[in-house]
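To illustrate the input format used throughout this study, we show a single complete record. The first block contains the structure-token representation of the backbone; no residue identities are included at this stage. The design step must infer an amino acid for every position from geometry alone.
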């Protein structure tokens, strides 16, 4: 159904005498090899730390193009599955790496620093900070 609608739209564009603009279709910037590798690495690391879910976003900083976008979650099974919309899992998930990079640049934290969350939940400024295995 979707392909026939696309074909009709393309056909109408080519047959319309009023259409003078060149039509360009969107091109994905996702690198399929990088996507597969990122998925495998994420799944391996999630299994290693027994995490419930994780995300990987690889962006080319010069252009802002997204090269890989992976979200995996484990619900009731032992196998990780792709998240259909992993932004739902953590609405501020994209800000975490940015905040971490800013903290690293100031020199106030190092990648080797650890935070003891006790039972997996750390209270700070009236909010909860949860580690990878808080449940």
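Output of the design step:
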């Amino acid at each position: 159904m979707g392909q026939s609608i696309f074909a009709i739209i393309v056909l109408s564009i080519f047959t319309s005498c009023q259409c003078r603009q060149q039509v360009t279709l969107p091109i994905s910037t996702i690198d399929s090899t990088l996507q597969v590798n990122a998925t495998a690495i994420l799944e391996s690391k999630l299994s290693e730390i027994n995490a419930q879910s994780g995300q990987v976003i690889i962006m080319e900083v010069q252009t802002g193009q997204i090269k890989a976008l992976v979200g995996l979650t484990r619900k009731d099974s032992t196998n990780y599955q792709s998240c259909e919309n992993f932004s739902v899992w953590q609405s501020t998930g994209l800000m975490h790496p940015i905040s971490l990079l800013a903290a690293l640049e100031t020199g106030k934290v190092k990648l080797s620093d650890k935070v003891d969350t006790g039972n997996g939940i750390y209270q700070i400024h009236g909010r909860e900070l949860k580690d990878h295995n808080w449940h």
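Structural context for interpreting the output: The radius of gyration is 21 Å. The helical segments are 2-15, 32-49, 95-106.
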